[in-house]
Amino acid sequence: MNNIISWTAEDEAIIATNTDATECKRCAVELGYWKDEYISYFVKHVDRKAPEINRGYYARVKAMEMFIHQFLERCGTQCQIINLGCGFDTLYWRLKDTTQAVSNFIELDFPSVTSKKCHIIKRNKQLLEKICKEDGEVIIRSGDLHSDGYHLLGCDLRCLKEVRRKLEAGGATGDAPTLLLAECVLVYLRPDAALALLQHLASSFPRCVLLVYEQCNLGDKFGEVMVRNLSARGCALAGERHCREPAAQVERLRGLGFDEARSWDMETVWRSFPEEDRVRVESLEMLDERELLQQLNTHYALTVATRGDLFADLDLNS
């Protein structure tokens, strides 16, 4: 790939979704949906979001954490996490505050995103000190950050050659249990690029879990409205045809080299949460548009694909 990259208006619109997501997360955190001591470093004051948006983000974060903890329970901390299209996600720092900090954590996103994230990390001691081990070195150069156990790398996920190079630079190894995270990222890739990326990941990591959170059921009227709204913002869903019912996502991932896969719409995921969690969240804000929330929930899905016997039984209720 050439060193000089010309980003399109569509690329910039996709990059802007990171800001939107970070603002939504900060709003929900401020309202008490979950705790995140680091999100405020990445976005300042935000306007209050609609209750259905806050509740939807809670379900997303809670569900991802649920499977992250299942993964770590099975393999311990001697593993690696690869966050595809990481944006301003704070998972690395949140894990560092627990006993579940992993051996190696690699984050990939557009260079403009990683450059901003590098800048924020560099100027905030609370973020930087979590990356530095005693006498450790942090190298920040050309939008990339390298340290002992954390790598933040600018990368175009549509270019498999570049992905391979960056994963190698981040110390990724096929020997370690691997957690792959893809939140609202694959849907923005052309189908051929997403196919190549997923096949590469499945073949490179024989003991892995892939967590995918993105739109689903886009073939109905509500889904068509979602697609039109995103298109109006300049965000074409290049992978829209793969965002159908969750069962189709399962078959797709099995066909790409994963041993097992399961997928649920977020309404199913929400109902799987412990009752006390749902009661607490429902008490935070009045929700007038309950039907709208249900429609949103049935148009997003969480998919879990695995390779290796260690992770074969990962499930909503595990």
TrEMBL record:
Annotated catalysed reactions: [phosphatase 2A protein]-C-terminal L-leucine + S-adenosyl-L-methionine = [phosphatase 2A protein]-C-terminal L-leucine methyl ester + S-adenosyl-L-homocysteine
GO cellular component, one term: cytosol
UniProt keywords, alphabetically: Methyltransferase, S-adenosyl-L-methionine, Transferase
Keyword Lipid metabolism: no
Enzyme type, top EC level: transferase
One Gene Ontology term of the molecular function aspect: protein C-terminal leucine carboxyl O-methyltransferase activity
EC number per UniProt: 2.1.1.233
Record has S-adenosyl-L-methionine as a keyword: yes
Pfam families: LCM
Record-listed S-adenosyl-L-methionine binding positions: R60, G85, D156, L157, E183
One GO biological process term: regulation of signal transduction
Domain of life the protein comes from: Eukaryota
Annotated function: Methylates the carboxyl group of the C-terminal leucine residue of protein phosphatase 2A catalytic subunits to form alpha-leucine ester residues.
Record-stated family: Belongs to the methyltransferase superfamily. LCMT family.
Name the UniProt record assigns to this protein: Leucine carboxyl methyltransferase 1
Gene it is expressed from: LOC113403683
